[in-house]
C-alpha cells in the first residue's frame, strides 16, 4: 500500500495572511519612514518577500528589512490572520485515509510554525523557506503526491514532483491563472469530497491491477462487507469461473451468516465451498487469551490453503482492509500473513468507508451490513471457549434482537458479551440504550446468563480488547 502524503501551502491556502502581512509591512514602513506599497505586496502574496519589497528598498538593505519584518510579524500578523474555511476538515479527511500532512511554504519556518501552533493544527512536518522548484524537491524527498496551493507556482511544483496539483481560489489567483491545476476548488471545504473521489478511483485501479495478477483466487468469505466486496471485485475482474468463495463452518459462525453467505455467492455466480474448521482443537484458541484470533485465523488458512491447492486455485485472499492494517492489536492478521494470504483490499489502500461506498454503488446487499465478528469475540479474554458457551451467546443475541424488533426498537449493532460468572453485558447503539428495559433484557437471562448489565458507552467494535492490560505480550 502506497502511503498517502499530502502537502499544503500556507499563505492563502491554510490561512488568510493578507491582514497580518499587510499590518506588519505597514508597521515596518512607519518605523523606517520608507514608502512600501503594502496593498500591492498583499495582492502578490506567494513569491519570497525579498522579491516583493525589492521595488521599494535599496538592494543592500533588503535583508535588514526582511529581518525586521520577521521580528515583529508575530506581534502584528499572527492573531489577525484567520484560518481559512475547511482546513480542519481537509486534514481530518487525510487522517481518515491514514495519510501524512505536510506544510511547504515560502514563509520562514518560525512564523509558519507559529501559525500552525496558534491554530492548533496537527501536521507531520513544516518545511519553510521553499518556493517553486524548492517545493518540488521537498515533495520528492517526502513522497508527497498531492499538493494544494493558491498560486500557479504551487501547481508547477506539484507537477515537477510528479504529483497532483490542487488549486484553491482562496488567494489572489483565479481559475484562469490556475488553469494548469489538475483540479481547482473554491476552497478547502470542497477538498474532502474531492480527495475521497480521487483516492477511491486511484485505489480501485490498484485493486484491479492486483486482482489481474492472479489467474484464479479463493476468497476467505465471512459474509461481511469487506470480504463480500472483495469477492464481487474478483468476480468482475477475473470472471466468476476463476473465483471461489470459501466460508468456514464452525461453532463460532452464526448460522444466519452462513445462509446469507450462500445467497450472496450464488448471486455472483461463483462457486461456494463450506469447509469445516476445528479451531476448538487448538489449545491457544480454547484458552482465549488475547491472541485467540491468531489461532482462529491460523486454522482457517491452514484449512483453505490445501483446499485451494487441491482445486488448482492460485492464491487465498482475505478481506483485510487498510483500516485493519493500522488498527493496532490484530493477531489474526499476523497469522494470515505468516501463511501467505493475499490482502488485495489492504494492498490497494481501500478503507472501510470506501468499500462500503463502492459496495453501495455496485448494488451489493452488504454495503450497510453491520460488523459481525465471530461469536468467540463476545467472550471475555481468559474465559475458555466452548461450543456450549458460543451457542448460548448466539441464542441470547437472537432472542434480544427479536425482542427489540417486536418492541419497535430499530437496533443496528448488538452484542451480548459473556463475562463468565459475572453474567452478560449488553452493547447496543448508543441511541438505543435507554430502550433496554428489564423486560427486554429478560431475553438474555432466558438464554442462560445469571445476570445482565448494559454497557453505558454503547456498542463499539473491539470492546473486549479494552480489557487487555498488556496486549503487547500477545503480538
Automatic annotation (TrEMBL):
It comes from Phytomonospora endophytica. It comes from the Bacteria. Transmembrane segments: none annotated. CDD domains: LarE-like. Signal peptide: none annotated. One of its GO terms (molecular function) is sulfurtransferase activity. The lineage of its organism: Bacteria, Bacillati, Actinomycetota, Actinomycetes, Micromonosporales. This is ATP-dependent sacrificial sulfur transferase LarE. InterPro entries: HAD-like_sf, HAD_2, HAD_sf, LarE, Ni-pincer_cofactor_biosynth, PGP-like_dom2, Rossmann-like_a/b/a_fold. Pfam families: HAD_2.
Amino acid at each position: 500500500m502506497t502511503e498517502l502524503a499530502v502537502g499544503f501551502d500556507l499563505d492563502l491556502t491554510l490561512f488568510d495572511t493578507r491582514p497580518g502581512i499587510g499590518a506588519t509591512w505597514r508597521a515596518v514602513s512607519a518605523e523606517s519612514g520608507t514608502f512600501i506599497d503594502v496593498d500591492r505586496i498583499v495582492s502578490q502574496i506567494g513569491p519570497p518577500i525579498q522579491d516583493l519589497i525589492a521595488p521599494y528598498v535599496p538592494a543592500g538593505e533588503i535583508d535588514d528589512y526582511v529581518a525586521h519584518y520577521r521580528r515583529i510579524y508575530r506581534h502584528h500578523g499572527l492573531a489577525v490572520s484567520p484560518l481559512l474555511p475547511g482546513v480542519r476538515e481537509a486534514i481530518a479527511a487525510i487522517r481518515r485515509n491514514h495519510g501524512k500532512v505536510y506544510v511547504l511554504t515560502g514563509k520562514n519556518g518560525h512564523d509558519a510554525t507559529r501559525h500552525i501552533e496558534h491554530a492548533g493544527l496537527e501536521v507531520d512536518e513544516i518545511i519553510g523557506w521553499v518556493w517553486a522548484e524548492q517545493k518540488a524537491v521537498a515533495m520528492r524527498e517526502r513522497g508527497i503526491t498531492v499538493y494544494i496551493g493558491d498560486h500557479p507556482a504551487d501547481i508547477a511544483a506539484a507537477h515537477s514532483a510528479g504529483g497532483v496539483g490542487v488549486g484553491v481560489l482562496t488567494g489572489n489567483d483565479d481559475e484562469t491563472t490556475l488553469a494548469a491545476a489538475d483540479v481547482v476548488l473554491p476552497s478547502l471545504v470542497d477538498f474532502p469530497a474531492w480527495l475521497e473521489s480521487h483516492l477511491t478511483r486511484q485505489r480501485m485501479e490498484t485493486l484491479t491491477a492486483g486482482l489481474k495478477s492472479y489467474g484464479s483466487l479463493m476468497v476467505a468469505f465471512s459474509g461481511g462487507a469487506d470480504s463480500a466486496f472483495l469477492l464481487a471485485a474478483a468476480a468482475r475482474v477475473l470472471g466468476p469461473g476463476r473465483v471461489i468463495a470459501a466460508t468456514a463452518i464452525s461453532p463460532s459462525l452464526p448460522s444466519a451468516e452462513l445462509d446469507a453467505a450462500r445467497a450472496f455467492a450464488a448471486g455472483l455466480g461463483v462457486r461456494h465451498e463450506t469447509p469445516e474448521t476445528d479451531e476448538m482443537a487448538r489449545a491457544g484458541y480454547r484458552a482465549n487469551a488475547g491472541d485467540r484470533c491468531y489461532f482462529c485465523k491460523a486454522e482457517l488458512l491452514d484449512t483453505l490453503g490445501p483446499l485451494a491447492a487441491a482445486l488448482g486455485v492460485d492464491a487465498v485472499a482475505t478481506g483485510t482492509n487498510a483500516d485493519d492494517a493500522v488498527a493496532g492489536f490484530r493477531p489474526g492478521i499476523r497469522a494470515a500473513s505468516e501463511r501467505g494470504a493475499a490482502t488485495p483490499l489492504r494492498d490497494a489502500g481501500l478503507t472501510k468507508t470506501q468499500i462500503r461506498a463502492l459496495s453501495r454503488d455496485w448494488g451489493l446487499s452488504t454495503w450497510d451490513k453491520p460488523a459481525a465478528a465471530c461469536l468467540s469475540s463476545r467472550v471475555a479474554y481468559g474465559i475458555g471457549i466452548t461450543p456450549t458457551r458460543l451457542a448460548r451467546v448466539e441464542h441470547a443475541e437472537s432472542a434480544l434482537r427479536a425482542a427489540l424488533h417486536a418492541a419497535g426498537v430499530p437496533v443496528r449493532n448488538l452484542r451480548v458479551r459473556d463475562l463468565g460468572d459475572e453474567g452478560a453485558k449488553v452493547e447496543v447503539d448508543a441511541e438505543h440504550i435507554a430502550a433496554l428495559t428489564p423486560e427486554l433484557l429478560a431475553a438474555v437471562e432466558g438464554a442462560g446468563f445469571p445476570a445482565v448489565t448494559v454497557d453505558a458507552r454503547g456498542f463499539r467494535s473491539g470492546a473486549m480488547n479494552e480489557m487487555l492490560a498488556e496486549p503487547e505480550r500477545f503480538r
